[in-house]
Structure prediction request, 437 residues.
Amino acid sequence: MFVSRLRLVNFRSYCDASVRFEDGLNVVVGQNATGKTNLLEGAWFALRGASPRTRREEKLVTWGQRYTRVELELQDAAVGLQRVDVAYATGQGKRARWNGVEVPSQEDLRSRSQVFIFVPESLLLVKGSPARRRAHVDAFAAALDPQYAAAARELQAALRQRNAQLTAVKNGGSVCALDPWDVQFARAAVELGSRRRALVEELGGLFTEVAAALAPGGGAFGLQLSTQLSGVGYDEEALVEELRARRPGETSRGLSLFGPHRDDLRFLELASVGAADAVPGAASAPEEPGEASAGTGEDGTAGFLQDSSARGGACGPVELPRGGRDLRLFGSQGEQRAAVLALLLAEQRLAAARTGMRGTLFLDDVMSELDDSRRRLLVAMLSAAGQAVITTTNRQYFTAGELAQAAVIELPLAGSVAPGDAAPLQGPSTPPDEAAL
Prediction:
C-alpha cells in the first residue's frame, strides 16, 4: 500500500493543490516557505485525523478561510484503490470518510493504514518530556493492536477515578474508600504495563539493528523502558500494597504517583555490542523504579562523551557508563535525529511484520543535520523500505544516482500561497455548507 495522490484544500499554505507520488523514494525539493512541511502534515492529517505539529486544528485552515479538506488516494495491490478524505471546519468539527463511508472514530481511521512521519517537532521524542514518548509508543501500539488500545483507555479511566478519590480523601473523605480504586487501578496498570513492556522489547531489537546500520562508525544502541512496575514485578497484589504504602504522599497531593503513567523510554548508546546483554536495547526495565538519572555511571559521574566513532583524544580513552549514554542528555543534534529515524524505521518493520502492510515514511528535512556518510546509509535504507517521501531544500544532499532512481517533485505547487505573501485570503463570510466537509 502506498500513497499515490494527495489534494489539499485550504490547508495551511495550500489553497487547492494536488500532487502525485510514486512507490519507492520520492524527493520533494523546494526553498523555505514553499510548503514542504505542510505537504507531509496534510498527508498525515488524512491518514491519522490529527496533526503531528499542533493540537489546535484551526491552525490548519488557510488564513481567511472557514474550513480545510484533505483528500488522499492509496494504491493497494490486494484491495485496489482506496480513497480517504478528512475535513475540518471551525465550529463544526471534523469528519473523515473512507471510500465515501464515514469513519466512526479516529481510532478506527488509524487502524486502516500504516504511516510514519518525521517533522521538526519529532526531535522532542528524544529531547522532550516522558509524556510525549509514552503517547508516541501508545499511539503506535494502539494502531496495531485493538487490545492495547482498550488497555490504554482502561488505565486512563482508572487513573482519573483514583485521582478523584485521592482528592476526596485530601478534602476529608474516608481513606478506606480508596481500596476498590486501588484494586481497579492495579489491574489496569499491570495489563497496560505488561503490553507496553512486550511491545518495547520487540521494538527495541529492531531499533538496535537499524540504529547500528545508520551509524557510520558502528556502535550499539538500544531502547530501554524505565518503569516503576519493575519494582513490584508486574504483580497486581504487590502493586496494591505499594499503593497503600504510598497513600500519605498521594493523598496530600491528590495524585497517583506510582504506575505506568510515569513510564519513560530511553534512547541509549551502549558501550559495545556485548553490552546490550547488560542493558538490552529491547527495552529492559531498570532495577530501581521511577525516573532514573540517565547518562551517569554507577559512581554518579556524567558521561559527557563524543561520538562513538571518535573515542579518546588528548584526555585518553573514555568509556561509556555501564548503563549506556542517554542520547536525550548527551547526544548531539545529529545523533538525536538519527535515533528518531531509527525508531520510525523500526516501527515500520514491526508494523509490516504484524499487519503485512509496509507503511509510508514521511520525512521532513532529515538530511540537513546528518553528515554525508549517514545520508548515504539512510537513502540506501529508504530505497529498500517501500514508499518514502523526503523533503529537502538542497538537491546536493542526494547523489545523481539516487535522484535518478527517485521521483523528484518540485515546489511550489500550483494552488499554493506564494512565499512571503502576508495578505490574508478573503474567505466566505458564512460557514461552509455540508458539501465542503
Observations:
- The chain has a mean pLDDT of 87.
- The chain has twelve helices and 14 strands.
